[in-house]
Amino acid sequence: MASRPKLSGIQKQALALYRGFLRTARLKAPEERRRIESVVSAEFRGNARDVDRRNFVYIEYLLRRGKRQLEQLRNPDVTGLATLEAKK
Amino acid sequence: MAAAALRPAILRRIRLFPSPSLPLAAAAAASHPHALARWLARPMSSHDAHLSREEVVDRVLDVLKSHPKVDPAKVNPEAHFEKDLGLDSLDTVEVVMAIEEEFKLEIPDLEADKIDSLPLAIEYVANHPMAG
């Protein structure tokens, strides 16, 4: 893991999505921000650990789902994580 | 012509507003005389206010040390995030975002993906004209 030279395209997408969530979390109230960060971080780490890295179909699905959820979270009226917490 | 006719009307209107802001400015100048002097000495320049390299290094080190997964004793200006500090790619995203926040920057994805060590992070911030 430590010295993988370059990130693959799909890895970059996942990291960009993670960055997108963290950026969006910054725009929320501090307490909400912390909750969003901890939920999102747990979700990404859980999937990084549990999902087979060759299972592209499933990873693509997770990326699409994540983008949709990020879209919702970007709405300034949305503060909650109900949709994020409900899954799994 | 029409403009000439409008002028007095506009001036009358404008005159209504300046007075309330003046006492505020005076109060601000009284409590921060140096801030005002500094501002007057170099109006609109962000260049003079640029950070020194030592300051950039110190603050980047501090950001790294405060990340929950990082052992502060291992942090040095040459450290690599993964190899030396044991961070994974998600941690690296968090660290780079924390550096953004510390220096009030927004690093585009393409650049952010390349920053995987302290030397690169320090280089990026030190060369960024808007780092504050």
TrEMBL record, chain A:
Similarity comment: Belongs to the complex I LYR family. SDHAF1 subfamily.
Pfam families: Complex1_LYR
Protein name: Complex 1 LYR protein domain-containing protein
Species of provenance: Dichanthelium oligosanthes
Biological-process GO terms, alphabetical: mitochondrial respiratory chain complex II assembly
Taxon lineage: Eukaryota, Viridiplantae, Streptophyta, Embryophyta, Tracheophyta
Domain of life: Eukaryota
InterPro entries listed in its UniProt record: Complex1_LYR_dom, Complex1_LYR_SDHAF1_LYRM8
Keywords: Chaperone, Mitochondrion
Residues annotated as domain Complex 1 LYR protein: 12-72
Subcellular location: Mitochondrion matrix
GO cellular component labels: mitochondrial matrix
UniProtKB/TrEMBL annotation, chain B:
Homology family: Belongs to the acyl carrier protein (ACP) family.
Molecular function GO labels: acyl binding; acyl carrier activity
Organism for this UniProt entry: Dichanthelium oligosanthes
Domain Carrier: 54-129
Alphabetical UniProt keywords: Electron transport, Fatty acid biosynthesis, Fatty acid metabolism, Lipid biosynthesis, Lipid metabolism, Mitochondrion, Phosphopantetheine, Phosphoprotein, Transit peptide, Transport
Signal peptide: none
HAMAP family in UniProt: Acyl_carrier
InterPro entries per record: ACP (IPR003231), ACP-like_sf (IPR036736), PP-bd_ACP (IPR009081), Ppantetheine_attach_site (IPR006162)
Subunit comment: Complex I is composed of at least 49 different subunits.
Subcellular location: Mitochondrion
Source superkingdom: Eukaryota
Pathway involvement of the protein, from the record: Lipid metabolism; fatty acid biosynthesis
Protein name, UniProt field: Acyl carrier protein
Function: Carrier of the growing fatty acid chain in fatty acid biosynthesis. May be involved in the synthesis of short and medium chain fatty acids. Accessory and non-catalytic subunit of the mitochondrial membrane respiratory chain NADH dehydrogenase (Complex I), which functions in the transfer of electrons from NADH to the respiratory chain.
Principal place of residence: mitochondrion
Gene Ontology cellular component list: mitochondrion
